[in-house]
Amino acid sequence: MKVEPVYTGFAPLASCHWQGLANVLESQGFGRARQKVCLTWGFSWDGEGALLGNSGCWLEAFNATFAGELAREDFGSWSRADSRERELVAARLPFVAEIDAFEVPSEYAQREHVSHTVVVLERDEESAVLLDTMNCPTPRRYPLSRYVRMRTHRCVDRFHLYVSARPPGRDLAADELLAAVLGRFRATWPADARLLGRYAERAREAGVSGLDVCRVGAERLQLAATMSLLAEAEPSLREVSRGLSSLSKRWYLLHTLAEQQAESHRQGRDRILRLLADVQQREVELAESFQETALRAPAL
Amino acid sequence: MSEREEETVSADASRIRQVLREQGKLARDPDELDEHDDLYQAGLTSYTSVSVMLALEDAFDIEFPDSMLNRTLFSSIANIERAVANLRPAEPSSNIVP
Predict the structure, then answer these.
(1) Is B72 on the interface with A (CB under 8 A)?
(2) How many angstroms separate the CA atoms of B95 and B97, rounded?
(3) Residue B84: pLDDT over 80
(4) What is the DSSP letter of A19?
(5) Do B63 and A271 count as a contact with CB atoms less than 8 A apart?
(6) Which of A257, A267, A278 sits opposite B50 (nearest CB)?
(7) pLDDT surpasses 90 at A268
(8) Which of A90-104, A258-272, B25-39 has the lowest mean pLDDT?
(9) How do strand A136-143 and strand A161-164 relate by DSSP bridges?
(10) How far apart are CA A255 and CA A219, in angstroms?
């Protein structure tokens, strides 16, 4: 199974799976995949914990928009994941698998166990051929035992993988895509904005220990790429794209500070809360800007 | 600049390079870097810049204001020195007023 690494290089925390998937989609003939793979802007939160997720519906949005069949598959055991992988290989479908970066050439190699994703091109009873578009964009063969080790470390969440079962059935011009993205955003944003408000309130009341917001930063970064494509329908959306890049950096800064600064450090806690209030405000302002700007597009 | 001020600047520069050595995970020894060299090109990442920032705050008993928390602050040793000098509490005057 051949996947040309169209998109390579550093992918920030929680975004590498989109890079891998974009490469798989390109191999299926779906052009400019990196600018289309994530069309969503939102939040998800269980109401209690410190993890603030992204919209949580980017897969569904992609499939609905492009008649795609992207899926994330989770497994209760390695034997089930292994069985599914054999099916995919037999069907000649490359897939994006979460692995332990400890086992592959990376800044974490032999140092730290961190989740990462790679494109699995082949596997058999003896080895697996992986394409790590971020760290090493040429296919490398690993002994199967090492592949199993990197797939089954506890840093890997439920042995999950992503697969595109078939090429997307349609593509959209920039103005059609803008209409689709805007429509979905307007339907979901009000509730998502309230969710962010509740999350920030919870942080103020319960503390910032364990605050985890990197997935939001990742989604904003992906959407910045999408927005640059949508700017073909309305050029002033380039400003929104830049705003999303900047917003992504602020979310990642918040995530890193929360990770590194002790909860007991009062000044640190205050700073994290200020940054959280800052990104909340930026989200609201940029969301308004996006909607106002998008409605200027001639097709809308 | 008085001799005492020069000594302070020199000590600060050494401490900054020490922090970069301990927290920056740079590809090059900070002592080999010119003060205007790009630290990100020398291997500093967004993640390690936060580690450096927190260590600098502890080392100099300062707090970087939110407005300074951006990539420019850590783009060079000179920028860091300037920021630290601006944020440090002023030294009490050594002049005795009769």
Answers:
(1) no
(2) 6
(3) yes
(4) H
(5) yes
(6) A257
(7) no
(8) A258-272
(9) unpaired
(10) 14
- Terminal alpha carbon distance of chain B: 24
* Residue B10 C-alpha, separation from nearest chain A C-alpha, in angstroms: 28
Q: Contacts of residue A274 in chain B, CB cutoff 8 Å? A: 66
pTM of the model: 0.89
pLDDT for A115 beyond 80? yes
Residue B7, exposed/middle/buried by CB under 10 A (0-12, 13-18, 19+)?
exposed
* Cα gap A182→A289, rounded to integer Å: 12
Q: Give A45-81 pLDDT, tens digit per residue.
A: 999 889 999 999 999 999 999 999 999 999 999 999 9
> For residue A56, what are its two tokens?
């949580």
Judged by CB atoms closer than 8 Å, whether chains meet at B69 and A252 is answered as no
Task: Give me A89's structure tokens.
Answer: 């290989």
Other Cβ atoms closer than 10 A to A258: 25
3-state secondary structure of A227: helix
Q: Which of A45, A48, A53, A52 is nearest to A211 (CA)?
A: A52
How much is the pLDDT for A261?
79
Tokens of B79: 């920028």
For A270, the closest chain B residue by CA position comes to B66
- Which residue, chain included where needed, has tokens 């299926």? A28
Tell whether B11 lies on the interface with A, counting CB pairs under 8 A.
Answer: no
What are residue A55's phi and psi, to 5 degrees?
-55, -30
Q: pLDDT value at position A204?
A: 93
Q: Name the least confident of A106-120, A155-169, A271-285.
A: A106-120
Specify whether the CB–CB gap between A218 and A248 falls below 8 A.
yes
As for the ipTM of the complex, it is 0.74
Q: Average pLDDT for residues A85-112, to the nearest whole number? A: 93
Round to whole Å and give the CA distance between A231 and A227: 6
The pLDDT confidence band at residue A299, using thresholds 50, 70 and 90, is confident
Taking the CA of residue A197 and the nearest CA in chain B, the distance in Å comes to: 21
| Nearest residue in chain A measured CA to CA from B27 | A107
Q: Which among B50, B51, B63 has the least Cβ separation from residue A267?
A: B63
State yes or no: pLDDT of A277 exceeds 60. Answer: yes
CA atoms within 13 A on the CB side of A166: 6
Distances (CA, A) of A117 to A100, A114, B97: 8, 10, 68
